[in-house]
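Re: the 165-residue chain
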Amino acid sequence: MDDASPEPRLILLCGLPGSGKTTLARRFAREIPAVRLCPDEWMADLGIDLFDEPTRDRLERRFWEHAQDLLRLGQSVILEFGFWGRTERDEKRLGARALGLPVELHYLAPPIDELWRRLEARNEQGSPGTVPVSRELLEEYGKLFQAPDDDELALFDEPPAGRRG
């Protein structure tokens, strides 16, 4: 690969609803450039209920297969899945490492009150590709979310200089 083309990499965006994953993913997709895969947007565009977990799981598995194909072809990929669980993050990190590629994890963790403020505004706007999230549901999600600790974060690669989340 010549110096003008950066090494392909896998970028994982991790955080609860309202944490800024989509905003950051869109910025990275332009700057790197990279292919951005966002299940929420695809499901909304296809008219699928965003709470349909079996369909989401199938779509995310298909996206992961597609991401690996793109990475093998030299294309950077951003997965905007939320990555609430450690095992899911480990699977993607180890899969990209098996391809010999760097993997970034961007963990977005605003305080719950800030997440709620953002979600309230988003709920009022009714933006395409989003679903209303109540404060109660957000708090339930917070209980399910396995935040990456410092030891886990150290397993991932640093973004190139000049690009931070």
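DSSP finds seven helices and four strands in the chain.
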